[in-house]
Amino acid sequence: PLVSTKEMFEKAYKGGYAIGAFNVNNMEIVQAITEAAKEENAPIILQVSAGARKYAKHIYLVKLVEAALEDTNLPIALHLDHGADFETCKSCIDGGFSSVMIDGSHHSFKDNIELTKRVVEYAHKHNVTVEGELGQLAGIEDDVNVSAENASYTQPEQVEEFVKSTGVDSLAIAIGTSHGAFKFKPGQKPKLRFDILEEVEKRLPNFPIVLHGASSVIPKYVDIINQNGGKMADAIGIPEDMLRQAAKMAVCKINIDSDLRLALTAGIREHLFAHPDHFDPRQYLSPARAYVKELVKAKIVNVLGSNGKA
Ligand code: G3H
Ligand code: 13P
Ligand code: ZN
After folding, report:
1. What is the DSSP letter of 301?
2. How far is the CA of 230 from the centre of ligand 1 (A)?
3. What residues bind Zn(2+) 2, as annotated (predicted)?
4. Is residue 310 part of a domain?
5. Which of 11, 37, 90, 263 could pair with 295 as two cysteines, CB 3.0-4.6 Å apart?
């Protein structure tokens, strides 16, 4: 069966590593991630956004993840990414997820607490863990588009009250990461506010912290895209050494979506550019899936440190 994130995070916190939380949208992505995790014997979180549920349908994603569970026998959590409201969270809890995020970060502190608390009460009755968020990342998600100017770091003074009054199991914080493939301006030096993370860690001892917007935007895949008809100049992500540092600290969950998209797209573009006559999806999705798998293995071993922890 699916596992909740509780035990995963306890072990990750103590062990100084992080669990990879990978966004899934179709069969090839589920297979690539779970095959990589299997070969590295790593626990993983597969997460589904509202957009993923709209694209693939809830039931297809749940069944794909169930198939991966049966195929790999790994500890896998199925998590709702960026739940916007109580109803979406409830529908995922009722529909078999083992973890949900309620993203109330764009509400007032008070409303965020109220909403998060309501989700926690329902989720915990069903043995489902809940991730909350304080602070706003820049970038684009389904329903929220936060510009860089409106993004705001998490205020460490708020975290104890938030966690205590909501009962959340983990907390996503904003320390300078952002969603998407363009995280920093060209020429700008990537920077994360480790001082905020440290302060949060002090105030919430042994409490699992989550990093969203944590793709590294690996140049290898961006280059392949650009060499094969793509146009993604100036794509920049979070340097891997910063993620390694965060994983050693209180960060127990690192969210990765853009890197998967880039690897998959690189594989498809490369194949179709080399073989303009091909039209069988299996021909171009096989190398694309292989790139995603290679990427996930590298993340597990070189960045997350979750290999051998299943
Ligand atoms: O946080 C954003 C994730 O990358 C999910 O993206 O909402 O386009 O599925 P999406
Ligand atoms: P990236 O866009 O950096 O992959 O972030 C994904 C994410 O935070 C999903 O919630
Ligand atoms: Zn996110």
Report:
1. I
2. 21
3. 103, 133
4. no
5. 263
